[in-house]
């Protein structure tokens, strides 16, 4: 039996899912399959515990070891998806939890997931990946192996350790490096400017006039939370006006044109306000700085290339990057991607040629552009997520995500657009047939 050594980068949801499907106990179906490979996986995690972005901390900036704080959770965060469509398909959340849960419930869920499948023993904590580079070898998987160099975050003089692996699965997340827009006059503005990555609690904003730039999930959530303590909150964005009702002290504005001293913010319609604080809910950058240039991975304004099916490095198909896509149900999404890649490694799924994979990738990109999506939405999955997941599942001959995940996801998405203040109060349960959800 062939033994495949795998390096997994990050022990958030994606990394834990990879460990579970490579090193966890097999399902009854998997036990009946004639497998010709065995995996030996090691996961490297720079933090002291699992969870990735779900591991809440009051700290912002850098930790005691000089590493950037990874988590973007704020203290009162509740999920914007219900637990019924957030769970890994084979590991439901506890029945006693409401549908919309706090970050601490998700963190506990991931800890239970790791314990249940016995995968903690494969994680090396507080080891930061410094460099990954390909090493060409005859008779190796796809003709090469990967040198992975890691350093202890506990010892500043650590010389590092280098080991060689057949496969690399990158699961380092994409909510750690804030994207800071260039705003004319920001050097003149004397108010407080912060990115949502560093937002934790509303109390310090009491009686402030606040501009929140960005109206995706974090922008809407933070604006609503701040409205309870602030004098006034403006949500500034470039979208058509949001159709939901907001608290009386929340007002929508166009995008920001410029800032000015001491507290003036001018919007693109020419109107202006005087604000105490500006909170940037403007997204995050991908960070693959630990991948050597020889790995072939490039990031072009939020497009990661060259990735077949938003996952497999077409130049070196023994590398996958899990979870780069936006607007997804993360844990089920990770589950399908990981099992797809496992099928590739086991040989039950044969990938097309590099040229064919690149052609498919370019077709997907051009199709997005033809539908009016900007270049930076190259991995954005609104309106096509479940179609994508079903395609991967069918290609790998694995179970699709249950249909009820899509039903409840679409139901919640509709209500979030029209009632952002109240949709998280809903609770869901299975109907009598168990194939659909009902609102309780």
UniProtKB/TrEMBL annotation:
InterPro entries: FAD/NAD-bd_sf, Flavin_mOase, Flavin_mOase-like, FMO-like
Cofactor(s) named in the record: FAD
Major enzyme class: oxidoreductase
Pfam family of the protein (one): FMO-like
Keywords (A to Z) from UniProt: FAD, Flavoprotein, Monooxygenase, NADP, Oxidoreductase
Family statement drawn from the similarity comment of this UniProt entry: Belongs to the FMO family.
Organism, scientific name: Elysia crispata (lettuce slug)
Signal peptide: none
Enzyme Commission number(s): 1.-.-.-
Name used for this protein in its record: Flavin-containing monooxygenase
Gene Ontology molecular function, alphabetical: flavin adenine dinucleotide binding; N,N-dimethylaniline monooxygenase activity; NADP binding
């Amino acid at each position: 039996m062939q033994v495949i050594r795998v390096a997994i980068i990050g022990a958030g949801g994606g990394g834990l899912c990879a460990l579970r499907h490579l090193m966890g106990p097999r399902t009854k179906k998997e036990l009946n399959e004639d497998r010709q490979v065995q995996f030996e996986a090691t996961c490297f995690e720079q933090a002291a515990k699992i969870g990735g972005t779900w591991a809440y901390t009051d700290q912002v900036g850098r930790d005691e070891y000089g590493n950037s704080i990874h988590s973007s959770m704020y203290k009162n965060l509740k999920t914007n998806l219900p637990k019924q469509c957030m769970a890994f398909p084979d590991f439901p959340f506890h029945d006693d939890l409401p549908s919309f849960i706090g970050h601490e419930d998700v963190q506990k869920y991931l800890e239970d997931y790791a314990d249940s499948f016995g995968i903690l023993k494969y994680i090396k904590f507080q080891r930061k990946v410094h460099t990954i580079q390909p090493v060409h070898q005859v008779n190796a998987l796809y003709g090469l192996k990967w040198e992975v160099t890691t350093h202890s975050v506990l010892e500043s003089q650590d010389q590092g350790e280098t080991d060689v692996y057949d496969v690399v699965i990158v699961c380092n997340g994409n909510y750690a490096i804030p994207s800071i827009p260039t705003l004319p006059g920001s050097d003149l503005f004397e108010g407080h400017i912060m990115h949502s990555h560093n937002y934790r609690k509303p109390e310090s904003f009491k009686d402030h006039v606040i501009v929140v730039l960005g109206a995706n999930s974090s922008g809407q959530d933070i604006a609503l939370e701040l409205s309870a303590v602030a004098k006034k909150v403006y949500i500034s964005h470039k979208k058509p006006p949001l159709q939901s009702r907001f608290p009386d002290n929340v007002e929508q504005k166009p995008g920001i044109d410029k800032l000015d001293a001491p507290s003036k913010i001018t919007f693109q319609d020419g109107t202006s306000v005087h604000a105490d604080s500006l909170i940037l809910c403007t997204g995050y950058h991908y960070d693959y700085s630990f991948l050597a240039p020889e790995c072939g991975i490039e990031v072009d304004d939020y497009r990661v290339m060259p990735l077949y099916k938003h996952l497999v490095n077409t130049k070196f198909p023994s590398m996958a990057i899990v979870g780069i896509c936006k607007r997804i149900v993360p844990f089920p999404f990770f589950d399908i991607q990981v099992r797809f890649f496992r099928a590739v490694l086991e040989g039950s799924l044969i990938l097309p040629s590099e040229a064919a994979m690149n052609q498919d990738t370019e077709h997907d990109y051009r199709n997005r552009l033809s539908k009016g999506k900007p270049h930076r939405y190259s991995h954005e999955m609104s309106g096509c997520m479940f179609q994508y997941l079903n395609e991967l599942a069918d290609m790998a001959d694995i179970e699709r995500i249950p249909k009820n995940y899509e039903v409840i996801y679409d139901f919640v998405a509709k209500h979030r657009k029209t009632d952002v203040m109240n949709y998280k109060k809903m609770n869901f349960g299975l109907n009598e047939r168990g194939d659909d959800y009902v609102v309780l």
